[in-house]
Amino acid sequence: MNAYFKQDEPDTRNLLDTGKQGVIGKALSRPEGLAKVTGTAPYSAEYQIDGCLEGVLVTAPFARGRITAIDKKAALAMDGVIAVIDDPRMTTRPAQGTAAAAPEQGPGEVDYFGQPIALIVAETFEQARHAAKNLPFDYEADEIGSVPLDPESAPRETDDGSSMSKGDLAHAMKTAPHTVDLRYRTHGHVSAAIEPHAAIAQWDGTKLTVHAAQQMPNYNIAELADITGLDEENVRLISRYVGGGFGSKLGVAEETAAAAIAAMQLSRPVRVVMSRQQVMQAIGHRSESRQRVRLAADSGGVLTGFGHEALVANLPGESFAEPVLQSSQFLYGGDNRLLKLEIARIHRSTAASVRAPGEAVGMPVLEAAMDVLAEEIGIDPVELRLKNIPEKDPDTGLPFTEHGLARCLKEGAEAFGWDSGPRQPRLKRDGDWWIGTGVASAARVHNVAEAKARVTLNPDGTASVQTDMTDIGTGTYAILSQIAGEMLGLPPEKVLVQLGDTDFPRGPGSGGSWGAASIGSAVLVACEELRGSLAEKAGVNSDELDIADGMLNGQPVSDLLGGKELSALGHYEPGKIADDYTSSGFGAFFAEVRVNRHTGEVRVSRMLGAFAFGRVLNAKTARSQCIGGLVWSIGTALTEALLFDPNDGHIANADLAEYHVPVHRDIPALDVLMLEKKDAAASAIQAKGIGELGMCGGAGAIANAIYNASGARIFEFPMTPDKVLQAMEDN
Amino acid sequence: MKPFDLQRADGLAHAGQLCADKHTAPIAGGTNFVDLLKLEVETPSTVVNINPLPLGGIEETADGGLSIGALVSNTATAVDMRVRENWPVLARAILAGATQQLRNKATTGGNLCQRTRCYYFTNIDQPCNKREPGSGCGAIKGVARLHAVLGTSDHCIATYPGDMAVVLAALDAQVEIAGPKDSTRTVPVRDFHRLPGDQPWKDNVLEDGEIITAVTLPAPVAGRQVYRKVRERSSYAFALVSVAAVIDMDGDSITRADLAFGGLAHKPWHDPRIADLLVGQSPSEALFDKAADLLLEEAQGYGENDFKIPLARRTLKAVLAEATGVKP
Ligand SMILES: Cc1cc2nc3c(=O)[nH]c(=O)nc-3n(C[C@H](O)[C@H](O)[C@H](O)COP(=O)(O)OP(=O)(O)OC[C@H]3O[C@@H](n4cnc5c(N)ncnc54)[C@H](O)[C@@H]3O)c2cc1C
Ligand code: SF4
After folding, report:
1. InterPro entries per the record (chain B) (predicted)?
2. How many CB pairs below 8 Å do chains A and B form together?
């Protein structure tokens, strides 16, 4: 059976609420959790495959140029080395998310320091690594100084799709009683997923099978087919467990391409695992940004002008530009609007998606600027935000789907104990530590994508769900067992969810926070079909179905099945809902920080996020996503920055000792309020994306709290002690 | 990792003989050395496992001090009751370093000899005079956030990254060293690490074949003990600046001011002029400023690390205020 649902209208049937099992939304633990914490859930590099060779990538020690000769003989003379591969099909950058085609190929041309130029294959990992570090090769490197590395001085293009202008912002800035015109900088970030990029490829002469750490097998299969020149039918990609993605595993990256090509050339299985340094240097990072925010408000605090401009960077030829202004398009009103995104072409490693691309750095900056405006007007910053929530999308004029910003600001303020009186910095001190609070709005565009899943009722009454959708640590296994369980009247443990295998129907992939809403809708569609045929078998109307715990209107479902399985392919596709609405998750952040008045160190002492993202599918995994977002907010605000060498563009701090993600001690008790309200126009399951929302603005709340605590207005993230000291009043 | 021979030290003399070869190095906890082996920053032909040597004890010395064996783990030193009672600043400094797991493996000798965290030193595709003499210094014109502002040279601006040694320098502890031919010598921690000069590859005064056997703390002294480590994240990060202090007062007069600084130089920085200035004086903000002036008289930033100069001043003043009870 096939069932297809193209969603043109809000789906107010709320089918999930008609289920009788009562598991949807419940705070259930993930079914694969035990296997993960006991080390029995195999990650991509951990499959034991007989005769597997080990590959290690060799990388370029210069910014731009070409490899002129590789001394393969010398490498082959080293212990254990079996091959040196520099096949022109090898890729030199990761594919961007949803590319579905090969990224840049040809390792002989070098575009950035640390780019892979060859693969050493050896009997053991240690032999391959040693040979990779000592492979002799000749190259011509373009002269230092002739290669653009600095976004400020590099050639630029405007990203028209992200830019717009309406009314006359300059005039609004000239005439409004309250204005701010501020410039900010944010630094590069990496995903820093615990599992490094890794792949094992096997080739049987016709068919390529690859275990790889990927977020989107549905696109990755096309990328891998394009890279290798194979037909998709002859490629199978398996990503059952992924140890964190955060955008870094959206596209097929260099290690997977290299493993596949090596396995095909050598007719032996080949494993390639990147070192931490290689992951940081040769996998995509979040672009640094320069931003300008102009805000004009009337005497009552209502915005009359809104301008947000950004300069980001990427390699020549990359289509991806960090979409810094994404939420600025609709978050606040103001008739005179200007958005402009420019992209500088430089030769540092690939800029690509890192968790919440765009909003992760655009929202903290906008929200920091809103705080300056609130002070300028002399109004409570929560109130300023409440006053400027537009009725309709101020750019397109489209209506919003469920809009939760006002609720999040109000209920968040209440739960946090926000003091809505006049705000003034440096009112509270505990010994050497100034204490202050800050607020910021959260917004993250909601997307939903086409998805397919097969749901099967087995003769014994249990069920299975199959799709190539992945679980990158987010909870996909859990929520799909709950959706199917709710619809088919089964406890979730009776639903076996199988993911991450391209032999299964195409899911949406995990990315852009669209996974749960999209694949959940496909599972719902399949289950609806199964319910229809169960009703038929039982001789009742679909709306009279009462199924729970494997019993249908008093009769075991297995009896109805009569020893046969019942299977349906659910196919969901967003139709006009995608064009007729502006849809976003919303929220509000409240932070309390302590700033050391001598050293400028900042520690977050309390943080709360209130979020509205439609239906909550699993209160535990949803909360975990929010908590993770708050942790990333703290990293963005205080510690995370890539340090690029000015002479060759390499990343100096390419390891976890020197790229500072927050540690446990940096994270206080975090509060999450989930303000559930089903969003019928968001997806067939009334859910929206939540994976990224938790960090879309949070760093701004911390920046504002730093100012409120210490009087230090800082215009650069992360706000490390050196910057705090420089901005502190008594310096 | 370049393949190497792994030898087991059967006794101190044996370890010394083996290590006399300049391509041979000892390994203790391995928390620093193994990383550098993997990166091929270190490429010895022989590695000597010194863990079988009997250097794992903490013993009281005749004059009331404490001798901490070279193989005592950082954790064991930090939890030792004698250390906690008499030299609490040492326990605090150790606990401010690395992580619990690393401290469980890290040893006294290895901690003193840990190598710089300079980004260019650990990247073999970059120039570095310390790793490859004559190749140049990548950091001077590059990313120098971590780097030194005192005692630098045109050849190297790296810092010694550790915490424990900063306190040992403040306490005027001694490093006990065994040479290859049964010789021994004692070097004050204050003189153990070197400035880079034109030989930045030499971190310290150890000669080939010399092994640290212990660190000796002098008898405890009266006074407030403070270790203040400044860093952007609150654990698992090296110091931007750190200050170790033992300060004693008699009434309103400072009678002891033993200070040392981390994160500023190629060695734990100790400047005897600061004690000379402070002792006998009554504490005040103006006095503390003078101390900072002395400390930073010749400080030189390299762009990204310029902030360390005002940060060192502020941290020093805050520590002095805390230890003397002055309210700034
Ligand atoms: C991520 C990370 C964070 C860290 N953070 C901090 C920090 O915040 N503060 C801090 O102080 N430290 C920090 N450390 C460093 C840690 O303290 C050192 O790695 C550790 O102390 C080294 O001790 P080890 O016994 O493991 O030495 P090893 O790694 O075994 O050896 C280090 C060096 O010492 C030599 N050596 C060892 N023992 C002797 C001996 N007896 N005589 C002569 N030479 C010897 C070795 O040949 C080698 O060159 C950190 C380390 C890591 C990896
Ligand atoms: S500062 Fe010293 S360790 Fe760093 S690159 Fe320069 S020479 Fe090497």
Report:
1. CO_DH_flav_C, CO_DH_flav_C_dom_sf, Diverse_Substr_Oxidored, FAD-bd_PCMH, FAD-bd_PCMH-like_sf, FAD-bd_PCMH_sub1, FAD-bd_PCMH_sub2, Mopterin_DH_FAD-bd
2. 97
